[in-house]
Amino acid sequence: EPQMKRHRKKRKGEKKLRSYAFPIDRTLVGPGDLTRPHHDYPAWDIGIPMGTSVKAVRAGTIRTVTSGGRCGIGLVIEGTDGYSYNYCHGSSLVKTSGTVKTGQVILRSGNTGRSTGPHLHLGIDNPAGARICPQTLVEAWYYGYQLAMEEAPTTGCYYDTPDDEKKKKKKNKRDRRQRHSTSTSRGDGKSVTPGG
């Protein structure tokens, strides 16, 4: 089996990783897993075995612990950088309150909450409360670098939701109706647009 590439050159804007940590053992994922889109909003999901140690990507204080609902067993850490880090779908919590260090194990992965299989869900909110796309950050952390958090986008890292698809279909249907209503028939089956 070929050896996976676990190193790359530093890219523009990246620095050596010091203040952040990759959340799981790097050998569990490949480079293609790092930028995979999330299903319906900015976040990162990665399938990993049940019970895998999950580490805090940034030092901070545990703000919320969850045990059910969509997130299942999880927690939110208010990072020392002002960003919030949301970890979901664990099987058990290792840390439930107080402060955590960068790279400290905080939970074991699982399949709780709204989940279709064992995985880690990582969501990051900026200081204003907007969700950001973790993929570029996760990729940099994987390779041992860090980016400025404010460089992470807020769109382009997730699939359209069924509601988005419905809105697009409605808009396309409305646009077709408007085009049709502005055309008139010549009687020979061809349409003529007024003024044309």
Report what the structure shows.
Helix content is 14%, strand content 30%. It has 196 residues and is an alpha+beta fold. The strands form three sheets. Strands 2, 3, 4, 5, 6, 7, 8, 9 and 10 form a nine-stranded antiparallel beta sheet that branches. A two-stranded antiparallel sheet has the order 1-11. A hairpin with a 3-residue loop joins strand 4 (60-68) and strand 5 (72-79). It starts with 14 loop residues before the first strand and ends with a strand. Mean pLDDT is 83; it is low at 181-186 and 189-196.
Produce a short descriptive summary:
The chain is α+β, with helices and mostly antiparallel strands and 196 residues long. The protein is built from 2 helices and 13 strands.
Shape: globular
Gyration radius over CA: 22 Å
Number of helices: 2
Low-pLDDT regions: 181-186, 189-196
| E-strand count | 13
Report the average pLDDT across residues: 83
Helix content: 10-25%
Estimated structural class: alpha+beta
Helix and strand run: EEEEEEEEEEHEHEE
What about the largest sheet? 9 strands, antiparallel
Beta fraction: 25-35%
Report the end-to-end length measured between terminal Cα atoms.
Answer: 64 Å
